[in-house]
Amino acid sequence: MKTLIILVLIVSVTSCKSLPxxxxxxxxxxxxxxxxxxPFLKSKFRLIHSIKASMPGENNMSLIGITAADPGQKSLxxxxxxxxxxxxxxxxxxGGAVKIxxxxxxxxxxxxxxxxxxxxxxxxxxxxxxxxxxxxxxCGFSVNRFFCRDGMIIDMITQNGQSGKINQYDRSYNLVRxxxxxxxxxxxIPVSVTLTAHGVFGYTLNxxxxxxxxxx
Amino acid sequence: MKKLDYYIIxxxxxxxxxLTPGYADDWDEVREAAKNIxxxxxxxxxxxxxxxxxxxxxxxGKFYFNSPDSLRWEYISPLRSILMMYKGKVRSYAEGTNGxxxxxxxxxxxxxxxxxxxxxxxxxxxxxNPNFNAQLLKGREYKIIMVPKEKAISEIIKSIEIIISxxxxxxxxxSINESEDSYTLMRFYNIKHNDKIxxxxxxxx
Lengths: 216, 205
Prior knowledge:
The structure holds two protein chains of two kinds. By secondary structure, chain A is mainly beta. Chain A is 14% helix and 51% strand. Chain A has a 13-stranded antiparallel β-sheet with strand order 1-7-8-9-10-11-12-13-2-3-4-5-6, with helices on one face. The model of chain A has no long low-confidence stretch (mean pLDDT 87). In chain B, 23% of the residues lie in helices and 44% in strands. Chain B contains four helices and eleven strands; from the N terminus they run ααββββββαββαβββ. Chain B has helices spanning 3-19, 27-35, 106-122, 151-154, and strands at 39-50, 57-66, 70-77, 81-86, 89-96, 99-103, 132-138, 142-148, 159-164, 171-179, 182-193. The interface between A and B is medium-sized, with 30 and 31 residues.
């Protein structure tokens, strides 16, 4: 049994360790908003999602998520609620400082709060990058690659005009997160997102946009 | 007991009071009225009010109950979700990527506890509720205020307020208050008592 676990770990680690080539690599200044898929928020929005979570051990749950996002300040408030209306998590991220307003166990840990804020930022905020390049992947899709200040690498892949994918790699080039976005609406808000956290203890979140409004 | 369990118990305490026909000048009349309930079905709307929301988040659903131990609590929008209890057996379903999928974990466990509570209420035993103190106030309208006894519950729910119209004892509203800025307001419609409800309602999705 121990041998099997070790083998699984080895396969998991080695299979994720790959940063696809971008050809040709042309230095860019971010995303061409006119021609490329761009799910990142440009204004302050309040978003309400249905969230279907698939967790390890076949644990599934359905929740409602409320996000107040300010891309200019890169600040966030995120609320998770059960269908019955119980708020099980409420936290803010202001200038990188995360504060938990309410958290019911096991969602009361700072680790969870920080991870959730990072996941939301990955989907909705342009990365904080020092350098970016653009080109095409071997499969033919165009890509913008962001080299982030925290050492992570984010690929923003355009699959067609309204759909795309965000891949996040860690410093060792392991694929750690994928956000697949099926389409964006007329205000540029992703309508349907599947976020996958890779690895042995990975999880999948399916987010469907229920309501949204621009905030003042 | 997990914190979600407390919230579900609170919700069903509210539901019981909501669906009891008529109102009472004291608990004895409520107790007496409860004995005559054989079945209940109703539509409901649920408004979630929070500071982060400009307008309340609206949910809709249906509720069915057959005495003594069959219950269906179904959300239709914005997320489909069903809690079912049939002759003591509890099942929970939530909408997944491929439609409704059974959730066999904490919600079903919580419902076992809720069932014990409901059974006690149907026998008229709710002033001795181990989880809540209930107070009946009389004024222009009747108001039932329920306050958690234990700190563990009060950290999740501050209070529950039920407003009852003096005319024919119609329940006007129920508010589950989590904090100053967050509460859930339920309203029930088309309430029917003692209609025949087929057992299949409590068995099939």
